[in-house]
């Protein structure tokens, strides 16, 4: 059978990048002073898994890199060495190389970089640092040029070995001297082992002297077998697949038969020995082996017997022989799923367990990978379903509830189900925000190191779930904000000390759900924004400011294009591009940014995002004949105004006085030039909304209802209209525009 | 008749490769993503053959093998270790834990099938 390995590549790519991310996170968290063993183990496992996959799927460059990585990690987790900062740096670099190699493979190319060799050499050097000291000192003295084969026989009961584990320790110790093998399964009244080694007899005796009186052990040169395999690698490579242990029952016959059968069977013909010999014999093949006498070998022997019965017809499916099904009944009756190719009748022994095999555990994996397009298609269809339901409900609203009780109750069931369905489908696209957060430990480490600052990163609420599309778009703005915080927010250690703060600054990334939105905060305990400096800069750049601007208005200045207060442009930030891009990115996600800062205490930037870009919690408002949707997240309050609340300022348009504040008044009638009859202002409703331009009062005719609406893009279906962020279809089939409050505030200013 | 094989590995790609290969060959396959998961699934089902990785979170392969051998229904079921290390020390540990054999990683699908057919037919 030919299996196209490339079908598993994508899974490997995903898995490897997850492992790389996990590895990096752990490395950054690792405390070099007192390393946590569990963490070292987890790092090792990540490297090990990548190596295994890379080897299996033929990405040798990655396998090589992970191999050197793993060698050093293995020594660390076995506590043979303790980690150093230099090692962590080397590990991180190796992780970068692996990531680049992975990306190259994903594009179907090979990654070539002189760094690879340098990093591999660095890791190897680090792993060797104290290797000389740990090598056994006794090595030269008992060493022969030629490997010899020794037979070791003893009786565990007589030498009073405490337990099986002692026996195992002994076997392990011998295995370190050379190629170790059991000639027969260990018994309390006798063990027969074989050792092929270049160490002499004295070295073997010395090994035994640790656990027992060597006098009780018989160590004899084994002349029957020439010394072949010395090291494990040799055993696998040189000895193309065979390992027979002399002296084991039936091995002579098996040897003879094996070499004869080799021709028939491409190297697998051990089974011509006495029935059951397979059970007791160690079998060494190329790349795998079986332990003679171990549990499960009866099964192997049974297969071999069956194999013989099938007269060497190569490999295939064998109809179950009576002996085999009996055995299966004893131990592991196969699940009666009946998808086999053999066409053989199910074994009678399996019948009595049918009831058990019915409640077999799920055969499939616990997760599947689906393309995002398929999920989006589902979301669209569910959106259509929700709209269709709304239309049906609208048509049915005129029906007599008594006569049409069943239709109406069916409709309400439909509503509940489609809402549940919508939520379930939306949740498929939801990912924990840790997907973006997890890159920041590295960003903070590297940025802080470049700037000579000490910064600690705290992540809170990484489990908060958010639409995948938003998560991807959140990465860049957050990156800017975090780098900015380190560069401009956190002070140098000496400055912090002088200010009576801890030398190490702290940046917190916090995510949480609030109402229907997700709130992401980036806060630092740095110097805070400087009000005077910002105002001076604004004056210099000719940015108009009100006479007595509020703090909030001043802080918003940093989002102005080309605005930077940094005295010196650094690599990290300070070119003045960035913050305006941050704001634009967030605006595009229907989100909003707020800044809070206090001098000497730090700055907090809050990003508020909708849960998803596909649906919106909105309030429908009526304006004449038209219905508009206002995003709920923007609404602060709505009031019934009195006539005296409306003020007109010459040249500046209208204002509304709300709780002592004067807010710009936006009259939708005017902005969209709606026709129809206009009501008196005091008969309408003022909706106070929060925008990037500050608070604004919107005047509408009537609040209609709260809806969850499916967002349809106006740009793709029509064209971009200022003041409108999208459209939706209402229950009565009408199209309602979704208002973009930021744009409205801007429009009203003009 | 299709025999059910349990493959225990924390690496999804290896698991899928093993699983796909064996399913193509007509076996039923259950996947488990670490030793503990493997033990739970083994307890809940019946398997003719078990492959297990060694290095896994929660419970490693050797511990899994020991725990399985303590269960009467798995006392004699073939259990093979998938291992990147084929040193004698590793083999000795595997043998002591009760493994039936070992298969060196990386391996290709043909090798895997060869082993499976040898062990359970």
From TrEMBL, chain A:
What InterPro entries does this protein map onto? Bact_Chemotaxis_CheA, CheA-like_dim, CheA-like_homodim_sf, CheW-like_dom_sf, CheW-lke_dom, HATPase_C_sf, HATPase_dom, His_kinase_dom
Which GO MF terms does the UniProt record name? ATP binding; phosphorelay sensor kinase activity
Which CDD domains does this UniProt record tie to the protein?
Answer: CheA_reg, HATPase_CheA-like, HPT
Q: Which residues form the HPt domain?
A: 1-105
Give the protein name, as stated in the record: Chemotaxis protein CheA
Q: Which reaction does it catalyse?
A: ATP + protein L-histidine = ADP + protein N-phospho-L-histidine
The UniProt entry, under Pfam families, shows: CheW, H-kinase_dim, HATPase_c, Hpt
Superkingdom of the source species:
Bacteria
Instruction: Tell me which Gene3D superfamilies the record gives.
Output: Histidine kinase CheA-like, homodimeric domain, Histidine kinase-like ATPase, C-terminal domain, HPT domain, SH3 Domains
The enzyme's main class, written as a single word, is transferase
Gene Ontology CC, one term: cytoplasm
From TrEMBL, chain B:
Instruction: Show the stretches that span the lipid bilayer.
Output: none
- Put simply, this protein is called Two-component system chemotaxis response regulator CheY
Q: What span is annotated as the signal peptide, if there is one?
A: none
Instruction: Give the matching InterPro entries.
Output: Bact_response_regulator, CheY-like_superfamily, Sig_transdc_resp-reg_receiver
Q: Name one GO biological process term.
A: phosphorelay signal transduction system
Residues bearing PTM 4-aspartylphosphate: 53
The Response regulatory domain is annotated at 4-120
UniProt xrefs under CDD domains: REC_CheY4-like (cd17562)
* Entry keyword set: Phosphoprotein
The protein's matches in Gene3D superfamilies, at most eight in alphabetical order, are given as: 3.40.50.2300
């Amino acid at each position: 059978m030919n299996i196209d390995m490339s079908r598993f590549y994508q899974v490997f790519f995903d898995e490897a990048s997850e492992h790389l991310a996990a590895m990096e996170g752990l490395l950054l968290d690792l405390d070099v002073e007192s390393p946590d063993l569990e963490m070292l183990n987890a790092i090792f496992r990540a490297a090990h898994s990548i190596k295994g996959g890379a080897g299996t799927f033929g990405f040798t460059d990655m396998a090589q890199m992970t191999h050197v990585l793993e060698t050093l990690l293995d020594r660390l987790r076995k506590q043979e060495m303790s980690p150093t900062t230099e090692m962590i740096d080397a590990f991180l670099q190796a992780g970068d190389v692996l990531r680049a190699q992975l990306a190259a493979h994903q594009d179907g190319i090979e990654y070539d970089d002189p760094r690879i060799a340098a990093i591999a050499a660095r890791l190897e050097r680090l792993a060797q640092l104290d290797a000389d000291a740990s090598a056994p000192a006794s090595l030269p003295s008992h060493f022969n040029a030629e490997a010899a084969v020794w037979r070791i026989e003893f009786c565990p009961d007589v030498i009073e070995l405490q337990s099986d584990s002692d026996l195992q320790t002994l076997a392990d110790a011998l295995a370190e001297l050379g190629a170790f093998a059991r000639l027969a399964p260990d018994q309390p009244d006798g063990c027969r082992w074989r050792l092929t080694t270049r160490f002499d007899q004295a070295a073997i005796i010395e090994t035994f002297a640790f656990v027992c009186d060597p006098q009780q052990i018989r160590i004899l040169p084994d002349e029957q077998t020439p010394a072949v395999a010395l090291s494990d690698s040799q055993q696998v490579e040189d000895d193309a697949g065979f390992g027979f242990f002399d002296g084991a029952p039936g091995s002579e016959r098996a040897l003879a038969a094996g070499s004869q059968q080799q021709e028939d069977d491409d190297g697998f013909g051990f089974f011509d020995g006495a029935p059951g010999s397979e059970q007791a014999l160690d079998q060494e093949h190329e790349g795998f082996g079986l332990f003679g006498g171990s549990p499960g070998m009866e099964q192997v022997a049974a297969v071999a017997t069956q194999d013989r019965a099938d007269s060497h017809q190569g490999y295939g499916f064998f109809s179950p022989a009576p002996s085999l099904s009996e055995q299966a009944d004893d131990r592991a009756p196969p699940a009666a799923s009946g998808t086999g190719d053999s066409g053989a009748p199910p074994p009678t022994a399996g019948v009595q367990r049918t009831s058990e095999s019915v409640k077999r555990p799920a055969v499939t994996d616990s997760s599947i990978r689906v393309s995002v397009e398929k999920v989006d298609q589902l979301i669209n269809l569910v959106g259509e379903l929700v709209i269709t339901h709304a239309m049906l409900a609208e048509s049915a609203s005129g029906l007599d509830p008594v006569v049409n009780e069943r239709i109406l109750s069916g409709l309400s069931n439909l509503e509940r189900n489609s809402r549940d369905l919508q939520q379930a489908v939306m949740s498929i696209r939801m990912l924990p925000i840790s997907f973006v957060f997890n890159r920041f430990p590295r960003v903070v480490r590297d940025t802080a190191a470049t700037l000579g600052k000490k910064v600690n990163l705290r992540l809170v609420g990484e489990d908060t779930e958010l639409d995948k599309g938003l998560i991807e778009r959140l990465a860049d703005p957050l990156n800017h904000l975090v780098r900015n915080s380190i560069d401009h927010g956190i002070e140098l250690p000496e400055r912090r000390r002088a200010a009576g703060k801890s030398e190490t600054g702290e940046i917190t990334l916090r995510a949480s759900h609030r109402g229907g939105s997700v709130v992401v905060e980036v806060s630092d305990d740095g110097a805070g924004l400087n009000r005077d400096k910002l105002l001076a800069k604004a004056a210099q750049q000719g940015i108009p400011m009100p006479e007595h601007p509020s703090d909030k208005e001043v802080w918003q200045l940093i989002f102005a294009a080309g605005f930077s207060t940094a005295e010196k442009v650094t690599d990290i930030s300070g070119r003045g591009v960035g913050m305006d891009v941050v704001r634009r990115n967030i605006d595009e996600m229907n989100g909003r940014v707020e800044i809070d800062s206090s001098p000497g205490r730090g700055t907090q930037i809050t990003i508020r995002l909708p849960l998803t870009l596909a649906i919106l919690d909105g309030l429908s408002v009526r304006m004449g004949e038209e219905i508009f949707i206002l995003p709920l997240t923007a609404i602060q309050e709505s009031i019934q105004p009195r006539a005296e609340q409306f003020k007109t300022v010459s040249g500046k348009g209208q204002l509304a006085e709300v709780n002592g504040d004067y807010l710009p008044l936006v009259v939708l009638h005017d902005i969209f030039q709606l026709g129809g009859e206009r009501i008196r202002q005091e008969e309408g409703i003022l909706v106070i909304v929060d925008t990037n331009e500050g608070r604004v009062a919107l005047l509408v005719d009537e609040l209609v209802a709260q809806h969850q609406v499916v967002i349809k893009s106006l740009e793709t279906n029509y064209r971009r209209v200022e003041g409108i962020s999208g459209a939706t279809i209402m229950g009565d089939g009408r199209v309602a525009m979704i208002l973009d409050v930021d744009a409205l505030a801007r429009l009203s200013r003009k | 008749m299709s025999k059910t094989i349990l493959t225990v590995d924390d690496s999804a790609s290896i698991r899928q490769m093993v699983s796909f290969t064996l399913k193509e060959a007509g076996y039923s396959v259950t996947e488990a993503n670490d030793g503990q998961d493997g033990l739970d699934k083994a307890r809940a089902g019946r398997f003719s053959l078990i492959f297990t990785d060694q290095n896994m979170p929660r419970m490693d392969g050797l511990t899994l093998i020991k725990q399985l051998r303590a269960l009467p229904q798995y006392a004699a079921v073939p259990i093979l270790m998938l291992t990147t290390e084929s040193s004698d020390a590793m083999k000795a540990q595997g043998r002591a834990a009760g493994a039936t054999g070992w298969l060196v990683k990386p391996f290709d699908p043909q090798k895997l099938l060869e082993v499976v057919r040898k062990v359970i037919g």
